[in-house]
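Input record (one chain):
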Amino acid sequence: MKGKVGIGLRRDIANEIIDSEPIRPDFIEFAPENWMGIGGYWNRIREKAVSKYPVTCHGLSLSLGSPEELDWDFVSELKAFLDENQVQIYSEHLSYTKSKNAHLYDLLPIPFRKDAVDHVSERIMRVQEALGRRIAIENVSYYTPVAAEMSETDFICSIVEKSDCRLLLDVNNVYVNAFNHGYDARSFIDNMPLDRVEYIHMAGHEKVEKDLIIDTHGRPIIDPVYDLFEYTIDRMEPVPVLLERDYNFEDLESISAELDHLRDLIRKKWGVVHEAAQGNA
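The corresponding structure, as predicted from the sequence alone:
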């Protein structure tokens, strides 16, 4: 899948993805929590999609930063699901989503601290052992730092090194955080362990105030994020690239054009030539 371009399997556009019309991804990604344990019509849709495309999964509820014990029943079910669907890459957010077993339904930032590095790294290693695979952790968007004692780049690099995991590099999140917190996005990229990147996320966002951007996954990618993407891939080897779109599916031709634009940039920088997805090869 190196250098290939995918899209999330959202139920709003699942049939269009399966039919490859007008959206023709090279692979698909879905959140396992949204598809585990379901039957009927949507289970048949998942089976059709998995039979046609290579699959990556991006988790929502592992909650690597939480203080309580990991949910090992969930991890066991997750392993079976990843194996059943021949998932090539499994990733999770570098955040927490639960507190005292209550699901918070948001991706909350982990303090950039040494004790947090140790805590999260130990949890990642245990999950990797249970799953029998390395996972990729994603740099998340956040709107206020919490008790930071180190830079975000040092925090991420330390966890990747200590846990021997991979990195899901979300280029839009880098842009959003750089804008909101006043740092240089390219410098951030330069300080990431680009040799550990498993794949890349690209997405749109919404500027809600003159000094605030919200990561929404609901709008087209803007030119400065494409520029940052070009800067990034010029410094690393080919990996899969995913277009994240969670809603606003009225203009499917525009979304298809975004996929093609990513392919054009990849062809220019990495020399990867794309063909229509044909089966699971």
